[in-house]
Amino acid sequence: MTIEQIYTGCLAQGAYYIESKGEAAIIDPLREVGPYIKRARQDGAKIKYIFETHFHADFVSGHLTLSDKTGAPIVYGPLANPKFDAIIATDGQEFPLGDLTIVALHTPGHTMESTTYLLRDKNGKDHAIFSGDTLFLGDVGRPDLAQKAADMTQEQLASTLYDSLRNKIMPLSDEVVVYPAHGAGSACGKNMMKETVDTLGHQKETNYALRADMTREEFIAEVTEGLLPPPKYFPLNVKMNKEGYEHVDAVLERGTRPLSPRAFEAAANEAGALILDVRNEEDFVKGHIPRSIFIGLDGSFAPWVGALVADTEQPILLVAPQGREEEAVIRLSRVGFDNTLGYLEGGFDAWKLGSLEYDTVSSVSADRLKDRMAEEEEELKVFDVRKESEYLSEHLVDAENTPLDFLNNHLAEFPAEEVFYLHCAGGYRSVIAASILKSRGIHNLVNILGGFDAIKEAGLPVTDYVCPSTL
Question: Rounded to the nearest 10 degrees, how much is the dihedral formed by the CA atoms of 117, 122, 124, 127?
Fold first, then answer.
């Protein structure tokens, strides 16, 4: 028996490869399916099943492409209604895999089709669960995403999830291994552990939502408390997962077309394309194409694109580090952005060599900011684009919180002419914010290099924790 977790940090997502006696199953595959096919070939195995725990909102699954390339059927749990051929399992239905058995346990609540797959070994002993978004480590799936599809309130979905956990999962042995679909950093939960594998027994001891004495009312209140609005791309990804999408091979072929600087400029104008600069933030600050948006590959790239670019059909042109163009196109496709039209051949250096216009981001070190604060009679305007929870934990005295996720809701708060300063934790998110503001004609900004980490190191005045109820 082989169980392999294939974890993608950018999405905090776990796909799974299970193999026994030459038969393999894939659970919740990502959009690019080559790695799963290659892995099965290494074992001399045939992919027999593709299991989907639910219609994912935070990424586009590779189920359709993988099924097309391998002939393996796609399996969903009860109540799923995809617009393509699939096995809709009944609750408790068993699927033989070599000398193993995979059992579909219907566990609605995150979504109504959500299903946990229980793996039994050759002796029929419960070995592991692949819990999708029903049970995370340290948390459970948020119950607000499927309200419209289920025609239920988030409280009703939470109540359904309470029953699923207590009737289907908690009665299982403490020795059962839990393999969730996501870990810390995913927007599908709010309190996930950094670990990606655990035992059910340890989760019963540590996961707030699995307390043995927890009432239904307590569960509903705690699971629904503090839920932030979901990213705008979530419903679009659900639609693609449910209805179908273009194969990633075609997306890659279109998106990796090299374009000369002049052709790139023409394509941007003709298609109304968004120019997405995915280089390092330090490179973007030094020089970039005017009105381009920075979201660097070396951060939580795909989720930030999904959160900040409203339309998945938006034409996109890439400015990428040399050799990473294909990576950028693949990672965009994982969250449903399939309309990449090509990339700038030769990168930003080619743009500059072509004597084309470019822009920069004004920056200041935290030490120099400290000097300016001492020199200026009036208080400097500083905007903190970290999450509200980060800001409440600790922040620069008198800084205003304008979280990057909701930057568009704060545009009127930025001064029209007066110079203001931006920072995040380390510099990545503040450069994203700067690029968005500059694309909207707001250029009177200065990025604080090194973010809040540098601010603290420089000894600037910082607050302690502030309870939200006192604000």
Answer: -50
Q: Is 202 helix (H, G, I), strand (E, B) or coil?
A: helix
Q: Please, what is the angle between helix 428-439 and helix 301-308, to 10°?
A: 30
Strands 100-106 and 94-97: antiparallel
Does domain 363-470 match CATH 3.40.250.10?
yes
* In the block, residue with structure tokens 């999708």: 132
Look at the chain and count its residues.
Answer: 471
- Where in the sequence of the chain do the CATH 3.40.250.10 domains occur? 246-353, 363-470
pLDDT single digits (tens) 299-348: 889 989 988 997 888 999 999 999 999 999 999 999 999 999 999 999 99
Residue 237 to residue 179: CA distance in whole angstroms: 23
pLDDT in tens, 206-254: 999 999 999 999 999 999 998 888 888 899 999 999 999 999 999 999 9
CA angle 90, 91, 94 (to 5 degrees): 75
Instruction: Please report, in angstroms and rounded to a whole number, the separation of the first and last CA atoms in the chain.
Output: 55
- Which fold is adopted by the domain 246-353? Oxidized Rhodanese; domain 1 (3.40.250)
Q: In terms of CATH architecture, what is 2-231?
A: 4-Layer Sandwich (3.60)
Contact criterion met (CB below 8 Å) for 153 and 223: no
DSSP for residue 182: B
